[in-house]
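forwarding from the other thread:

> can someone predict this with coenzyme A?

sure thing
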Amino acid sequence: MIIQKPLKSKRLVLRSLGAADIGNSYLRWLCDAEIIKYLEVRHTKPSVRQIKRYVKDCNQSENICLAGIFLSKEGTHIGNIKIGPIDWRNRRGEIGILVGEKKYHGKGLALEALNRFASFCFQKLKLHKITAGCYGSNLASVNLFHRGGFQIEGIRPDHWHLGKEWETGVLFGRKRSISRKANNRKKTAGPSR
Ligand SMILES: CC(C)(COP(=O)(O)OP(=O)(O)OC[C@H]1O[C@@H](n2cnc3c(N)ncnc32)[C@H](O)[C@@H]1OP(=O)(O)O)[C@@H](O)C(=O)NCCC(=O)NCCS
């Protein structure tokens, strides 16, 4: 699915990606062990060709919406956010997010992107609920979804195999009616494993 009009927030622009956006920086993110530690893409060997095919497939799909996260001032592509597959019958979809440029971590940019993209999902795509899942030890992600107004809907023990360890899976959901200010308080620790 293509986003017809770029989504703007205070510091960011979220827009569909084209072939010109896919190059070495995107590939570098997917080869960075720290970035992909909790992502299934770590099991693949990415290439620019494969990323281009992935972006094209997302853009052509009616059930997936992938957006690049760009800094509005500099125009730098710092990451991606995606919803999909969307279950249109039940009006829900799964969100995934990656801020690949590590120097921009911890500045609230993922939260800003998540909130803007969630508004798009509820208002334009008319979804009732957005879901997300992450590893219990991925505190950046747990805290991000918590701060983004998501509720924990389930804990799945020994759900992911990470190195030699079994990891807890945390399932999140945010309903259309829940204000993003609902969880607008600090939280430092994720759920216990
Ligand atoms: C998860 C990720 C998108 C967060 O990006 P970010 O831009 O650093 O996040 P933000 O700065 O918007 O922070 C959002 C919240 O998470 C918290 N957070 C961010 N990084 C954290 C970390 N390493 N440890 C603990 N909390 C962290 C922030 O403190 C903030 O909460 P606060 O406002 O209460 O302080 C980023 O770390 C990333 O891309 N990781 C690799 C890919 C990944 O794991 N994606 C998630 C898959 S489900």
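Residues 7-129 form a domain with the Aminopeptidase fold (CATH 3.40.630.30). thats all i got for now
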